# Entry
Amino acid sequence: MSTMPTLTLYNTLTRTKEDFAPLDSANVRMYVCGPTVYDYAHIGNARPMIVFDVLFRLLRHLYGENNVTYARNITDVDDKINARAFERWSRQRPLLAEMRDLTEGTVAQFNKDLKALNVLDPTHTPRATDFVANGAEPMDMVRIIDKLVARGVAYAAEGHVLFSPSKMDKLPGAPRYGALSKRNRDDMLAGARVDIAPYKRDPMDFVLWKPSNPDTEPGWHSPWGFGRPGWHIECSAMAGALLGEQFDIHGGGIDLVFPHHENEIAQSCCAFGLDKMASVWMHNGFLQVEGRKMSKSDGNFVTIDELLTTTKFGGRAWPGEVLRLAMLKTHYRQPIDWTVRALQDAEAMLIKWGAALRGSGVSFHPRSEPSAQHADVVRALADDLNLQKAITLMHGWANEADRADFSNAHFLVAAGRFLGLEPQKWDRRPSPATFEAVANDTIEPLIALRLAARRAKNFAESDRIRDEFVAMGIVLKDGKDADGNPTTTWEVKR
Ligand code: AMP
Ligand code: ZN
# Structure
């Protein structure tokens, strides 16, 4: 392994880029917070899935395929899920079974979405409901809560169990509550938008367990009565059960730093008597759509499935490779603005790479030989996932891929595969039927705009619109009608 580059990762705990040193290089362990499956996943949810998929691929390359364990959970108990399950419930079976049935559907859809984005299956994809009070599981949520009560950092009150950060701060050996988010008590109180509830001794206390109404809410039997877990304890239990009390990397979106990850650390460290849970905490930046926060009421909310199979975004469906590359083009810690323009740019880039390969005469299945250039891509990624550098290298190879020397084309294929971008699909365009479906709404008005620009001799504008068509994989044919007026027809480039 001496030729392998050193992996450096930005650690939210220390706010610095650090050399990565796994606890056990024969079993590198990573946990990522997955989606709450009350509905189809939106494109923001895809970001951590893709970012940490690249890291998973890199870790397997650096440490060996069988030496990396990756757990990414499914949150399948939550008030929104509970309410939906209750609405559908016919009382023919337990409410929990109804809930499971509901989430089977959303989980299947999520898996389908991730397949289209070429995200590898993690080693484990635990569902929270399998880790609540499973008698055979030494690390289930009820047992961890029990330990926290026994250690004096949690208390039961009115069917709830609450975690007390102020007690944690007095527990010898435990980290300071707030160390990850670097917030003081006032910031945390503001950030968590905490409820002042009569059963809380301190407004900072957060819920580990809460009571369920057996007539309307799913629940489990516990020492504190019939109830259900709080959100944070789910991840402490699943990570502990599948990766051990301490592991290497914990990831998720930047929105989770506080309170979710702060609380995971509090629970796991206090229950297991440790000063740290994971060595490295990594967070992807947030995704917004066309410059605005995604929200259902603003109409700019878009699911992964809608991007892949409908014309809702930009008037057409987008191949999974385009979505994946568009996601990879922005550094994972930066915010990303999800725009039609960015998808067109990503598609144009893939089409260019595909054309470079075809032009070089290289088949899409070259034997992958270890090469210094491919190592450059690995080195770029090992620098805190510097994908921009990796993509720039690939661009250079595409520009210089020619028949005389196959190596550049080979590097391009190898690097593409490494990033989960399958070269066979690089010039896969949406089907002509997709365009037919939106021609009246999207293509024809744009053609009319371009004709108007040409009539006004605004050639810069008419060229810009033509380029937009090219990015969509559409060629325009200019002609004249019987009266000599300019006309434009279009077809999908083959
Ligand atoms: P949720 O289903 O909201 O619990 O989110 C699942 C995962 O997606 C978490 O890691 C979140 O941090 C992440 N996530 C949710 N919304 C966005 C967004 N708009 N941009 C980036 N990541 C997000
Ligand atoms: Zn989590």
User: Anything to note?
Assistant: The first helix runs from residue 43 to 63. The chain has three domains: 8-284, 318-425, 438-492. The chain is about 45% helix and 15% strand.
